[in-house]
């Protein structure tokens, strides 16, 4: 059997299919993410796995087309009558082809993950078990696609079948969310890409979601394999059975609520991990690999903040999540710093750690109206650091607010030292009104 499988791997479309999946998948992970180092998924392994699943929107149609291309082989070679005259059952003839194409899809998908993972291997310390489920569903999706393509290619052995099937697969994935509205959870049962875009730093995929999707993809794969290996119409009709059973089980397992993945938060990823020695500097578990880069600048900022009476003596990451919104607790002795991950899993702006940590001492929680304004906090922070505020912190900042911060900073610079210090302490006092 191993000898036959080896021949099939060399002579079939398996090797070429694996290389195509690898090339297209790696290009999507790096180029389509907007950076040659994949900054959109460089936070950690869960973000990488979810982004890779998102790009199944193109990889799955390619798997369908590869299977259909291979499924045409008997018709294209005109060996159907020759094979029919041999005593070997069709199922036994189909097993090497099915196995070779499945191995090709798994290898291509895994290599895409490896090609992306090398850029964050040194910084991504947190590997949640849910990543295995997300990756397994992705590989199973490609197997289901290539086996279904084999079946369609054998039943419809025309040259246009592979491209038409690829376009149909792409249309199906893109159209499912619209077809299942308002029951968004139903789209997640049958679509491996739904809600996998732009994962938050603390995102996770519940095991019920991965389990439901795995059931459906396994049913689709079994149906495709049965159709490809079938020799009679009864077997082809029987291939509908796993589809029905799989769909029913998958719907039963999937949580019946919309935005289940978008709203899911991994509490372990949010747990604080602290550096050794004092003063205390802590980040979220998912960002633990950034501690060596963060400790020095954070402690330098605490040295600056020591000039304030009762100033912060420790730095914690502000691990607030957007959906659902959970504000981080703020105390007088703690400066909350938002950690932004950039290309390659490193800090996005290492030079901004010191001023941003100092500014955090003048910033109240988001929902507090008694605290200082954004411009006041930045002006006070940069005055204390001794730097001029930048024109804009990021592309999302309001230029008018940035200009206001620079104007307030200029006013502080123009005042005598005692008056400027008094105004900065007043801004700090307003921020303390919002601490918990």
Give average pLDDT, whole number. 87
| Cα-to-Cα separation, first versus last residue | 68 Å
Instruction: Give the overall form.
Output: elongated
- What characterizes the major β-sheet? 4 strands, mixed
Sequence stretches where pLDDT stays below 50 over 5 or more residues: none
Structural class, from helix and strand content?
mainly alpha
The total of helices stands at 19
- Please estimate the helix content: 55-70%
* Beta-strand share of residues: under 5%
User: Tally of extended strands?
Assistant: 4
SSE sequence, one letter per element: HHHHHHHHHHHHHHEEHEEHHHH
Read across the widest sheet, the strand sequence of neighbours is 1-2-3-4
Radius of gyration: 28 Å
Keywords: Membrane, Transmembrane, Transmembrane helix
Transmembrane segments: 12-32, 52-69, 98-120, 126-148, 160-179, 214-230, 237-254
Give descriptors for this structure.
436 residues, single chain, 19 helices, four-stranded mixed beta sheet, mainly alpha, elongated, 59% helix
Strands, helices and their partners?
Layout lengths: L1 H10 L2 H17 L14 H10 L1 H16 L1 H5 L2 H5 L5 H28 L12 H26 L5 H19 L4 H7 L16 H23 L3 H6 L1 H14 L13 H4 L1 E3 L6 E4 L6 H15 L8 E4 L16 E4 L15 H8 L13 H12 L13 H16 L2 H16 L4
Parallel strand pairs: 2-3, 3-4
Antiparallel strand pairs: 1-2
């Amino acid at each position: 059997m191993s000898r036959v499988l080896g021949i099939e791997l060399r002579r079939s479309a398996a090797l070429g299919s694996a290389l195509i999946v690898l090339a297209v998948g790696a290009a999507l992970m790096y180029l389509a993410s907007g950076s040659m180092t994949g900054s959109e998924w460089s936070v950690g392994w869960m973000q990488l796995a979810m982004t890779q699943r998102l790009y199944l929107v193109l990889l799955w149609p390619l798997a369908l087309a590869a299977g259909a291309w291979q499924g045409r082989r008997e018709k294209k070679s005109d060996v159907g009558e020759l094979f029919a005259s041999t005593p070997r059952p069709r199922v036994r003839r189909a097993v090497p082809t099915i196995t070779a194409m499945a191995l090709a899809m798994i290898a291509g998908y895994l290599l895409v993950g490896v090609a992306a993972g090398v850029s964050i291997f040194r910084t991504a310390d947190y590997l949640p078990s849910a990543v295995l489920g997300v990756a397994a569903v992705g590989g199973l999706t490609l197997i289901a696609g290539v086996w279904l393509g084999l079946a369609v290619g054998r039943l419809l052995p025309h040259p246009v079948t592979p491209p038409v099937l690829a376009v149909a697969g792409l249309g199906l994935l893109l159209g499912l969310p619209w077809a299942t509205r308002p029951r968004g959870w139903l789209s997640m049962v049958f679509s491996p890409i739904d809600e996998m875009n732009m994962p938050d730093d603390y995102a996770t995929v519940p095991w019920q979601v991965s389990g439901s999707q795995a059931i459906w993809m396994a049913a689709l794969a079994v149906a495709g394999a049965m159709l490809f290996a079938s020799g009679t119409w009864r077997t082809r009709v029987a291939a509908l059975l796993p589809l029905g059973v799989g769909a029913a089980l998958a719907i039963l397992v999937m949580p019946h609520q919309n935005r289940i993945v978008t709203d899911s938060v991994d509490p372990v990823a949010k747990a604080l991990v602290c550096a050794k020695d004092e003063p205390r500097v802590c980040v979220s578990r998912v960002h633990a690999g950034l501690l060596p880069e963060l400790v020095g600048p954070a402690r330098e900022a605490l040295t600056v903040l020591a000039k304030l009476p009762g100033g912060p003596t420790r730095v914690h990451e502000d691990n607030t999540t957007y959906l659902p919104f959970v504000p981080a607790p703020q105390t007088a002795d703690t400066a909350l710093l938002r950690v932004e991950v950039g290309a390659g899993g490193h800090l996005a702006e290492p030079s901004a750690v010191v001023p941003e940590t100092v500014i955090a001492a003048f910033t109240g929680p988001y929902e507090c109206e008694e605290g200082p304004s954004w411009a006041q906090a930045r002006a006070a922070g940069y005055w204390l650091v001794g730097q001029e505020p930048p024109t804009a912190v990021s592309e999302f900042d309001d230029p008018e607010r940035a200009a206001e911060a620079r104007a307030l900073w200029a006013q502080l610079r123009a005042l005598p030292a005692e008056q400027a210090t008094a105004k900065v302490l007043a801004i700090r006092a307003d921020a303390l009104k919002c601490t918990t």
